[in-house]
Write a structure and sequence with these properties.
Blueprint lengths: L3 H6 L14 H53 L5 H13 L7 E6 L19 H7 L6 E6 L4 E8 L2 H51 L13 H66 L5 H29 L4 H20 L4 E6 L8 H22 L3 E9 L2 E8 L14 H11 L3 E6 L5 E8 L2
Parallel strand pairs: 4-5
Antiparallel strand pairs: 1-3, 2-3, 5-6, 6-8, 7-8
Adenosine-5'-triphosphate binds next to helix 9 and helix 10.
Pfam families: HATPase_c, HisKA_3
Enzyme class: transferase
Keywords: ATP-binding, Kinase, Membrane, Nucleotide-binding, Phosphoprotein, Transferase, Transmembrane, Transmembrane helix, Two-component regulatory system
Amino acid sequence: MSPPGKALANGTSARAARPARLELRWRLSLAIGLLLTAALAGAALVAVGNARVAVSREVDTSLRSATASLDLTLSLIRDLDDIEVERVLAKWVAGFTGARHLCVSLDTRSAPRDRCAFPEAPLGVPGWFVQGAEFSEPPVLREIPLTEKTMRVHLEADPRDELREAWVDVRSLLLVIGALAFAVNLCVFLTISFALRPLERLVRAMDQIGRGQRATELPRSGPPEVRLLSEKLGELEDRIARGREQVRSLHLRNLDLQEDERRMVARELHDEIGQHVTAIEMETIRVARMAPEEQVQREVRLQQLRASVAEIHRISRRLVGRLRPPSIESLGLVGALDGLLDRWREDHPDIALGAELDPGCDRMPGDRAVHLYRIVQESLSNAARHARAKTIGVRVMLEGAAVKLRVGDDGCGFDAQGSYRGYGLAGMRERAEALSGTFTVVSKAGAGTVIEAEFPIA
Ligand SMILES: Nc1ncnc2c1ncn2[C@@H]1O[C@H](COP(=O)(O)OP(=O)(O)OP(=O)(O)O)[C@@H](O)[C@H]1O
Ligand SMILES: [Mg+2]
């Protein structure tokens, strides 16, 4: 398994590149290895301490009982002659030939022999163990003065056998602990490796999502944490796909709107302005042909001409108002909104439209204010088209560094959680969120609709 960091580094995002670190399973393995080695060392120390006690107890007992036996023998042979003493002592010493924990020697020379000559360490026992478990028991020396010489009996502890036995026990214990430690570590290593394997597929899936493709490799198995991660990634992917789809359809809708707008302009030019221009043309011809005495009729015709010109003005103002972005820069947001509301009232005389506009909102820069303007415009348009409302209230307030908008109507309401084919609500939300703001719709069938948006003014 390649480390996830490496796989990410192959992806498109430079941010994903991270210096390669030790994989989690190796880290865990290392930590467990260190811990078990420390435990093993601790166990070895305890075992060596125990061995030391056992060896000293065993050897000490042997040395004491041999010393007691020697002292008893010496007290019994005190009155015997030299030959007898020598014989008894030789026999006594011979009785210890092959003794496990003692080295007993009889010395008749004038200078005592230098203790028993043991090899440095017992066969097969490591030096560190001997050093840890060995103890120094002082040798026992008894001098028996004879007529011509002095005999010496020399007793010395010999822990080698005992050390060897203790080592065999300690070695078995350490082997068992070592094998257990290895097994535990292997087990953890394999479990982690197996559990993290789906992460590779998760990383590949993220790469696919990042490239705008459908993730084909989302893991469905593995430990619950990975399954949860995969599930959440799937949800995220769905949300991204929905967002992309929304952007795409908004774009299409934008193009459609442009076309609609052009058609509307053409229609208005042709049907409305065209009619009046034709009428003006006809009227001017008629006025030009009138006889000087037709003064009264001429006045009537001229009145009609002026009315047609005024109508052309009105239509062209309406067209410009719809086509041109509102003149927020010159009027300010509040002025532009006032204009919008006035026009709206003219177009919908049967709906009572109340407004509360905070003059402080004019501080908002034009590029932001236009979004607020459009949100108000779309909210009003929705209320007029869908709500069948009697009353609508618009409130725009500056609160701190944020502007708060509320458009409420007492119309039929709708299910705000439902999905709709229109683009108005989505567009309003997009505008608010693009300005790091929030957008909420509260509505229920029969209970009117409240639209709220809030975003920073700068
Ligand atoms: N104030 C409202 N009262 C009642 N229903 C509403 C209101 N505002 C929106 N709706 C409902 O929500 C739907 C979605 O509105 P949205 O503005 O997104 O689209 P639209 O107005 O149908 O079309 P578009 O705005 O794209 O021209 C509407 O079709 C309508 O059913
Ligand atoms: Mg709409």
